[in-house]
Structure formats: C-alpha cells, structure tokens
Amino acid sequence: MRNALKWMIVVVLALFGPSDAMLSAAPMSGAPAISFARASVTIPDSDLQDLLLRLNSLKQQVSQASNYGQLEAPQDQVQALIQEIARLSALLLPEQAQLQSQLSVLGPAPLGEAALEKSDITRQRTALTEQKNQVDNKLKTLDTLKNSATELLAQIAVIRRSLLETEVTQQTHSILNPWFWEPLFNPPEDDRQRLSAFLQQMGATLDAAWQPGQRFYTSILLTLSLLLWFVGHRLTDRGLTWLCIHRMPEGRLRRSALALASVLATVLAAWFALQLLFYALTRHLPLTPQLVGFSQDFEKIVYTCVLITGLSRALLSTKHPSWRLPAIADPVAVAMKPFPIRLAWALLILVAAAQMTNATGMSAQVVISVRGFAALVITLMIGGLLLHVSKTRRALAATGAAPEAGTTLAGVIYAFASIAVVISLLALLIGYVSLSRFITYELVWLFIIFSGFYLLIQLLRDGCEYLFSPRHSTGKALKQLLGIGDARLDQISTILSGVGRAILFLIGFITLVVGGVGSTLGQLASNTLAILGGEGLRKLNIVPGNLLHGVLSLIIGIYLIRTLRRWLDNEFLPKTEMDPGMCASLSTLFSNIGYMLVILLALSSLGVQWTNLAWIVSALSVGIGFGLQEIVKNFVSGLILLTERPVKVGDLISISGVEGDIRRINVRATEIQLADRSIVIVPNSQLISQNLRNVTLGGSAQGVATLELMFPLDIDPEQVRNLLYDTYIEHESILDKPPPYVRFSQLKPEGITLTITGYVNSPRNVGAIKSELLFEILKRLGAAGIELAKPPPAA
C-alpha cells in the first residue's frame, strides 16, 4: 500500500507539478541566492548571415529572369527559405520565454538602496538581460528576413503572372512556317556553346561518379536504382495489394484502398529509385548552379510522369476490372491503357528538353521552337487518345452495350478535352506557341488533379460508409458508445462524407489554380495553406490543435449530455414525486441548456476570441430585426413554457380550434397529438400570446358527457326523463358527484328536446362513454316503445 501511494505521488507530481522554470527559480533551503540554469543562444550569427546571403541571391535571380519558367526554381527556394526562418524562430521562442520568466522571478533592479542587494543576484540579472537582448535581436532579424522573403514571394507571383500573360499573348511563327523549325535543326552558335558547356558540366559529374575506384560502387548503386523501380515497384504493389485484400473489409472500401495502394506503390518506388540515382551520380562532385536548377526541374517532371502512370493504372485497372472505381467499360479501359505511359515518356523527354533550354539560357527562338514541338506532340497524343476512345465507344454502341453507366460526366470530360485540343492546334497553326503549351500542360495537370482527388473522394466516402455502418464492428461500437440508432448513424456518415468531400473539392480547386505541371507536393501544400490560412482564420485563432480540441469537446460533451439525460429519464426522475409532465419538462430544459454550454465550450476550445466575433453579433442582430425575430420569439417562449409550465407534456389543451394532448415541447414549437393520432405543430409564441384552454391543468379536471335528444309531443315526459336518468346512473363511468341531471331544453312543434348531462373522471373518456350511453339509451327506448322525433320533410 505504501509503495502504491509513493508511485501515485510521483505520477501526480510529474503531471501537475511545477514547470522547469519554477523549479529552476525556486530557492533551495538554506541557499544564499537564487540559481538559474544558464540559457544558451542556439543559433549563431553565421546562420543569420547565410540566410541574408541566400535571400539577396534569390532577389538577384528574380531580377534577371526573362521568362516564366526561370522563376519556378526561385519561387521554391524562397518558400524553403521562409520555412527555414520559421523553424529558427520556433527554436528561439521557448528560449525567450524561459529568459523572460527567469527575469520576472528576479524582478527589476531596486531603485533606492541598490547597494544592499547581493552582488550575485545583480550579476545574474545582468547576464540574463544580455542573453534576452541577444535572443530578441535575433528574433527581430528573423522577422525582418521573413517579411522580406514574403514580399519577394508576392513579387515573384506578380512577375510570373505578367510573364505568363506576355508569353501567352505573344505571336511567333506558325508550325507550318519553315522558320519555326530552323532553330531546332540549325541553332545559333551562342546556343550551341551554351548547350556544349551544359553537357560538359554533366559529363564532368558523370566522370566523377565513374572514375577509377568508384565504378564498381557506382554500378551497384545504378543497378539498385533500376531494381527499385522495376522490381521494387512490383513487389511494393503486390505487398500493399496483399494487405488490402487480407486486412481491409470486403466491399467498396477495399476497392478504393486497392486503387490508392497502387498509386502509393508507384510513387514510393520512384522516389527511392530517384534519390538513389541522384546520390550515385552526385556523391563526389557537387552540382553546378545550372545543374542544380535543371535537376530540381527534372525531379518535378519525373514525379509528374509517375503520377500519370500510377493514377491511370489505378483507375483503369485492366487486369482486375472488378477493382475499377470509375464506371468505364472494359473495352474502353483497354483502349486507353497504352496512352498514359506514352504520354508520360513524351512529357519526360520533351519537358526535360524545354527545361534544359531554360537552365542554359538559350535564345528565345530555340525556347519557342522546343516549346512548340513539345506542345504539338502532347496535343497530338491527347487527340489520338480521344479519337481512339470515341471509336471504341461507337463500336460498343453499335453492339448495343453502353460504354459507361452514367455518360454525363464522361461526356463533359470528353467535350472539354476535345475543345482544348482543337484550340491548342489552332494556336500552333496561327503562331501562339506559348498559349498552346499552356493549354496542353493544363490538360495534363487537370488529369492529375481530377484523378487524384476523385480517388481521395471515393476513399473518403467508402471509409465513412464502413465506419458508420451498423453491420460492421465500428458502427456497432459507436451505437453502443453514443446510444444512437441506425438512422442517426446514416445521418452522421452522410454529413461527414459531405463535409469531407466539400473540403476536398475546395482544396482540389485551389491546387488546380496555384499549381501546374511539375509542381511538388511541398509547393502545393504551402500554397494551399497560404490561401486557406488567411488573415480571417488567423484572427479567429483557429489552428489544427485547437480544432482537434474543439471536436473532442463537442463529441465528449454531447455524449455526457445524452448519458445524463438517460440517467434522469430512466433512474432519477421516475423515483421523484413529480408528475410525468414535469419530468419531461425538466429533462428537455436540462438537455437544451447542456447543448448550449457544450457549443460554447467547443468554441472556447477552438481558441475563438469573442472580441473578434462582434461582426457576427451585429449581423445576427440585423437578421433578428428582419427575419429571425419569429425564431427568437419562439425560442424565448419555449424557455418560458419549460420554466413557468402553463402547459406541460400530457396536458389536454384547446387552442385556435385545435384540441389534443401535448406530446413534446421543443425549443421552437410544441407538438400536439389529436384524437386521430395526427400531430399538429404549434409555435411556442402562440401558446404564450393567445387564449388557451388547458383542460388538465388543475389535475382534477372532469369530462362532461352531454346528449340532446328530440322526442314527439305525445310522449310521457316523466317516463322518458326517468329512463334517461336511470341509464346515466347505472353506467359505471358516470360519477355520483356531481350527479347527472336531465333538463327540458326546448319545446317546438317538431317535438320536445331533452338534455341529459353526466360527469366522467377524465375529459379524454367523454367520446367513448357518450357512444356507450347512446347505444344503451336507444336500446331502452326501443324496449319501452318510445321513438325519437322525426325531422320534418324538406320543403
């Protein structure tokens, strides 16, 4: 027991004990002075100087750029520089906070009797102040560098947009003009020298990797790189496929997982092979600036080609048609299969050649000719794919088979691609080469974005359907944990799937706009976060950590509210002396207040600053004034009904010609159940503002069973009176107090009207009891030979 208590104390101190700063600041018993662990400045000045030099070099590169493509590498490098600055700032911020806390413990220097202070405290304060000043200066320098780099990034975007507009609208020679092809077959002497110098740099790098003594090692690395791509790709694909088949549940989720596994296997194998290839060729001699830029661009285009092949293989799935996600007929998929691989190889060769002209700084004539040739080849390949698919679909249609289950989306994609191909060819024919290149590259990029996000959306939808399905273990566990039914699980699945798909659509659109052929995942992520993480979200202080806290607070709070309400309804309230209506009102009021508190707690966990929500309050007040006043009035009326309880659940009321039992009092409206079991929804404000008859409010309300009968003038009134009175008295449901009575209501030429009234224990039983009394009265009248008066004949 003592050991258990000891370990418990240790755990509590570890979790809730004082922080390191407090421990370092707390004096030991008998210690002559306060002692601190000396904080160390972790970032040397040389690192800051290197960052400044990198930024100046990037500014010089941007100022010397002459075309759109030359700004791609500087843009990536500026983004990497910003990330490096943010990383260094994150390292210094905890150190700054530690130094500030230590100085706060020491306090300011005394103003009056300064000599009485111990010299060691003075030295500590001076040393800590110097360290904090150093850290503050470094943080200011980093902040200045970050602001300058951010401005440079914005300037690059403006310059790239301007250069793109200039290049797209620039008209050169047509592809039918021999002058267009002249620079390809007979380039100028300056361009030949630039290309020769570039090839010499590549040759020097290869010679360094193939020098004597390194050839065996280089051969092994190159062989491993090839094996990783050809053999490792297949092994990785088979391994991930085996995991999906044996570890994923049967159904649509397994099919989506198999498609994603195929893409991941392709990308991973390409990444490892490419990294090993670069290491094998560049491990001895560092690359020149030209080769560095070209290698970065080449790496991007390799990943683009890998994504084309991986996504097409995953979505077409010609080897396993049952795994295919889109509704594409087998002949159409087989006809499309060779085109993505051919397109990938063409892009790899042609775009690499175009990037080589940018890296070497060749003349505009050569750059335009290479771009035009690449755009022509890619356009013809995409056009050939469209024609081949169209021919296959027509052949299928001739046989009576539909090529796709739903042809709307396929038709839109086909029409859009066809129009783009026609415009690209026309642009090449009239001399707008850069426009044609832009269109073809955007077609390729659109295919990558559309296919990738289509795969992610399918995976998200199938995952939500599986997780919240009551037929699977996860859905059963959620039902038991949250106490909800199958319909509610379906609603949660639909909402989460819809919200997730909306978010993916938004991210996909942003990626399509900010990216392009050759964009890396890091560049896309940084651009997307820069757009999504704008000033509005930063003002609301919504960060991923706070978002997770808010979601957890919402889930746990709702679970606790539902659990406590079940406890109130099933255990506590039934054991009290309150009536069922009061119990239902208290339960509803508790849940409404609880949900409001949970929402406020979730917003606080999100880090939402209420001062920044003033515009929401203003908009809400305007909305209340124009359109939400009825909703607010009903909400307040519902709270009044639940607190003052002029009506409660179970009461029999009558309002505006509607009579029935109150079934439920909600926040906005009240449900009234009529005699035919139908439900009337009445706004709560009407129950407060209008005249309302509550039959059962007093708790002792009695029902009145009244019958009016007309008899001929020649009857014996006393005999009929006694017959009616005896019938009421002898019925078991008629109360003795007050006793029933018979009144002489009317005397007309048509007959005598007698009214008999009796009281029953509940107004809800009046209808059934009146029916029974009528049957009995008619029976006794017939036995006594007394007839009811007949209505006069119509004139």
Automatic annotation (TrEMBL):
Q: Where is the Mechanosensitive ion channel transmembrane helices 2/3 domain?
A: 589-629
Q: Which Pfam family, any one, appears in the UniProt record?
A: MS_channel_1st
Residues annotated as domain DUF3772 = 140-201
Give the way it sits in the membrane.
Multi-pass membrane protein
Chief place where the protein resides = membrane
Where found?
Cell membrane
Print the keywords alphabetically: Cell membrane, Membrane, Signal, Transmembrane, Transmembrane helix
Q: List the transmembrane segments.
A: 216-236, 257-281, 339-356, 368-389, 409-432, 438-457, 502-522, 542-561, 582-603, 609-628
The Mechanosensitive ion channel MscS domain extends over: 631-696
Looking at the record, the residues that make up the Mechanosensitive ion channel MscS C-terminal domain are 708-788
Q: Which Gene3D superfamilies does this one have?
A: 1.10.287.1260, 2.30.30.60, 3.30.70.100
Signal peptide start-end: 1-21
Q: Does the keyword Signal apply?
A: yes
Family note: Belongs to the MscS (TC 1.A.23) family.
What is the protein name given in its UniProt record?
A: Mechanosensitive ion channel family protein
